[in-house]
Structures are given as structure tokens and as C-alpha cells.
Amino acid sequence: MNVVMLILDIVFLTVWQFKCLDNYDDKCGYTYFHDSLGHYSWLDHLFVSSSVAAEVTGYQILHLGSNNSDHHPITWSLQSSILSINVEHGHQTSK
Fold first, then answer.
1. CA-CA-CA-CA dihedral for 3, 9, 11, 17, to nearest 10
2. Rounded CA gap, 60 and 22, in Å?
3. pLDDT tens-digit series, residues 61-88
4. How confident is the model at residue 39 (pLDDT cuts 50, 70, 90)?
5. What contacts 46, CB < 8 A, 6 or more positions away?
6. Contact criterion met (CB below 8 Å) for 15 and 42
7. d(Cα 78, Cα 38) in Å, to the nearest integer?
8. Which helix (H) or strand (E) holds 7?
9. Do β-strands 47-49 and 18-20 pair in parallel, antiparallel, or remain unpaired?
10. From CA 63, how far away is CA 48, in angstroms rounded?
């Protein structure tokens, strides 16, 4: 890894407070593959802001027979409420 990439990683993950939410328990275990060469690796990642990391659910690598790419797609859900209702005072506010 060169120095520029290391600095970008530090800024991206530390200063901007992003988190990598890769699910290493996923049964597929890789997102890139080249069958004839026997190459498999985890190249595709999910980075989100620390403020919403707890709301990400259902991370999964999709191993689809109909996929013509050498990368498996990843899927995930974001469970978040964009409106909160203050019942006591009867008005809505955006989060």
C-alpha cells in the first residue's frame, strides 16, 4: 500500500467517521472471482457513516447464476425513520 492510499484510508475512516460493515459471516466469502484462474477475493465493500451504521441490516453477498459480471453484487437494508411524531404536542418534525 502506498503512502497516499494509507492517508486516504485514515481520512475516510477516521476523520469522516465512516465504518466498513462487511459481513464476514456471509457464506459466499468473496465478491470478486475469476474461476479459470482460481482467484477469489473480497473487493467490494459497504462503507456508511457512523451515525447510521447501527441501522444497516441484512447485508448479504448475492451469488446469482444470472450474473454475467466477475463481481458478486452485495445487498443491504437501511432501517431508518425520517419522521418522528411528537404526540404530546401534536406536530411532526424531520430527523
1. -170
2. 9
3. 888 878 888 988 888 888 876 655 556 6
4. very high
5. 20, 21, 22, 56, 59, 74, 76
6. no
7. 34
8. helix 3-10
9. antiparallel
10. 23
Using CA atoms, how far apart are residues 47 and 18, in angstroms rounded to an integer? 6
Report if pTM > 0.85: no
Q: What is the DSSP code string of 28-88?
A: S--SEEETTTTEEE-----EEETTTGGGEEEEEE---TT--SSB--EEEEE---SEEEETT
Strand (E) or helix (H) holding 19: strand 18-20
* 45 within 8 A of 30, measured Cβ to Cβ: no
